[in-house]
Amino acid sequence: MQAQVSPQAWQFCWALLSPEKVPEIQYFGANALHTKISRYWSDIPSDQYESLKTQLFSQIACFSSGSKMVLTRLCVALASLALNTMPEAWPGAVAEMVRVFQEEGGGVDGRARCLALLELLTVLPEEFQTSRLPQYRKGQVRGALGCEWGSVCPLLQQLLQRTDSPGAVKARVLRCLSSWVLLDVPLNESESLLHECFSALRDPELFDTAVEAIVNALSQPDSQRYVNTLLKLVPQVLGLQDQLREAVQNGDMETCHGICRITVALGENQTRTLLEQVDHWQSFLALVNMIMFCTGIPGHYPVNETVSSLTLTFWYTLQDEIMSFQVEKRTVYLQVYRPVYFQLVDVLLHKAQFPADQEYASWSSDEKEQFRIYRVDISDTLMYVYEMLGAELLSNLYDKLGRLLTNVEQPASWQHTEALLYGFQSIAETLDVNYSDVIPGLIGLITRISVNNVHLADTVMFTIGALAEWLADHPVMLGNILPLVLHALGNPDLSISSVSTLKKICRECKSDLPPYANNIVAVSQEVLIKQIHKTSQCMWLMQALGFLLSALPVEDILRNLHSLITPYIQQLEKLTNETPNPSNKLAIIHILGLLSNLFTTLDISKQDDDSADSSAPPVKTAPLPPGPNPVVVVLQQVFALIQNLLSKWLNDSQVVEAVCAIFEKSVKTLTHDFAPMVSQLSEMLGQMYSTIPQVSALDLTRQMLHIFSIEPEHFPPIKALFELVTSVTLSIFQQGRGSPTDTCPPDLFLSDSLDVKAVYHCGLLSLKFPEAPTVKSTCFFFTELLAHCSDVPPLARVVQEDGKLLIQAVLEGIGGGAPRSLMDQFAEVLFSLNKHCFALLGVWLKEALQPPGFPSARVTTEQKNNFSQQILRERVNKSRVKEIVKEFTLLCRGLHGTEYAAEY
């Protein structure tokens, strides 16, 4: 890499291209040449352009019969030279390329020269797409290339129409066309070539490149302007139906795939244009039906077919366009297309069906995963189609399912039942179906399904979960549904679906669940003890129980908590007394996780909110009983055990994190109800952090500060904790030990009785850390801190005394000490200083920028003064400050005006 960018590359690249070298060495020479031309164009004096061009032409002629990979690199190098010189220094570049290669000479046979020219013409637009040209040049060059199409098109046409053109030449012509249409060549100017491409689809050797060229041409955003050309292309595409059917019969999936891509490219990119051609509505409907054929192509995706998935986006697009018309127009289109969409639902549900059990068992895990994703795509499409078909779609699905389940003569396959239920679930999961009159009947049908397969059972569960909100409005149905869910809870194969469904029901229907609570808790305890589910499902199950218990009377909560938690507490005591080792560590983290997930959702304060409907007059509910919150009661009971556990595991960050998570989740959920624990938790946190500082303890401290620092009775322990954390953190910074990212407090409570100077200096040190997240959060910290200058006197004093140090640290980062990705954050600090400390900022900037070479040896005194004045002028427009900082950092890094900076 270093050799290729070095000044010597100009000399050695030609030597490496000499004929006696092996192709790998020649390739290196050609690549070095391209690197120099594309990235270091400014190094080449303009009087050498012509000789460089001549040398490249002669090398390409030499290699036209040589190594293909070297030839391509040389063509790319010449293409790069053309892009850098057109249109001023090399007008008519493409016409000259065509002329040079059509001239006889050099002892190179005509076919080799022709292929070399086509290679050059193919890579030219490709090189343009990836070139690093500045934005203004891109526009100029694109225009110049557009004018050059007049030299390319006749050549391509002549080569395609000649009967004696070899297959290799025709294939290269199609590749070349494919490359040029991506430059938005007007569709009407490539029309005759596209007709040749359709003819080429009959030739197996040319099929793939012809497909690519047609798809690229039809996908250009500009192509919809050429309505007449598009209308001529529709019959061409419809004419491929026989070839498509033949390919399906022969199991030729590659041909099916190619024809489907063409059909979808025309349908998807030109939907609006073709819909609006009312006189041609029948041919567009024929195209839509051809796409429907591709959607329903026989076979199971992705094993026997890979075509149907290509069509799904088309159905979104068509629906969007139809629904965007004015009402009168839309009504006419809906008459034509609603039946098409009902047919689509049948096709999609057929495609979503699982194969026979034996066949599915033979699929690889990758195929099964692709099929799962495909079904999710079908689900999304059905959800979308519902917006067009509405309630009638649900009735349609319900009737089909009812007929299927009540047909005694012909029992339904589980696959068929599952697919119909999957359709319901797809819609109910994301859309409000509460008003639908078929849901009660659907729930009746669900209880009649004989579940004899795990996939069907999963879908039954997910469908019930999707109807959880409906069940909350119709609690009378819970008695029929809950036994199914609780039964499934004991099956490890249904782990995810059964647990997530129970969690949804407990969250949505909790106020109607007290009669079932004992049963739900008992079944949940049993599956937890038997360890049927994996860790994450156990955590969800605990969250479900938290929701459930929240709706019970306090004495029932305590009774259930006691039976639920006691076995875990006993296990935790036993584990705490063992010598720490990896296996008991996992068990400890698991139990702590169960507790914190339970406390995440156990919130009795929500009982009042749930029972009062905002639209109805307020209902008088019984006030919550006095006394501590049940979660606090439990935490107080286990506090000594947790302290003991910490004393053994304090140097293990994962265990400490799991302990902190219990308290953090409880504080978040309970907020002020957590008050009885503030004092003892503050003391424990202080001890933990003083012994071994860890980020999880800081996060919990921050949570406590947010909620309790403004309450006078809790201020002393919170203040003591904050001062302790600050002094410990500062001492770590001064000693330069520990992981700074972990111990940088992202936001701290401000009060005139705290050591603000220590906090401020802690922040200054953090600004110079190498870790971007630390610097980012520290910039945010200073932005917030400066806003309090006027209302916290000690802070105002510190900023007056040490503001210059902050400016120096920020300038150091901008000058190159920090990654460029952080410039917006540094700009925020400068903006905040300008807003809150304007009088001092001018002085600090002047003093900080005075030393020569600071913040970078690359910026002049004039540039520094200019930067300073620009910043001081902007007190309102934050985005302008960000632009000024970005400009200045590029100057400091020597990147200003480079192509590299153009991408910034």
Could you give the topology of this structure?
Elements: H1 2-5, H2 9-16, H3 23-39, H4 49-63, H5 68-85, H6 93-102, H7 110-130, H8 135-161, H9 167-181, H10 191-200, H11 207-218, H12 227-238, H13 241-249, H14 253-269, H15 271-275, H16 281-295, H17 312-324, H18 327-351, H19 357-361, H20 365-389, H21 391-406, H22 414-430, H23 439-446, H24 454-466, H25 468-473, H26 478-488, H27 495-508, H28 517-529, H29 535-550, H30 554-577, H31 582-601, H32 606-611, H33 630-649, H34 653-670, H35 678-691, H36 695-708, H37 715-735, H38 756-766, H39 772-786, H40 793-817, H41 823-836, H42 838-849, H43 861-873, H44 878-892, H45 899-902
Helix pairs in contact: 2-3, 3-5, 4-5, 5-7, 6-7, 6-8, 7-9, 8-9, 9-11, 10-11, 11-14, 12-14, 12-16, 13-14, 14-16, 17-20, 18-20, 20-22, 21-22, 22-24, 24-27, 26-27, 27-29, 28-29, 29-31, 30-31, 30-33, 31-34, 33-34, 34-36, 35-36, 35-37, 36-37, 37-38, 38-39, 38-40, 39-41, 40-41, 40-42, 41-44, ...
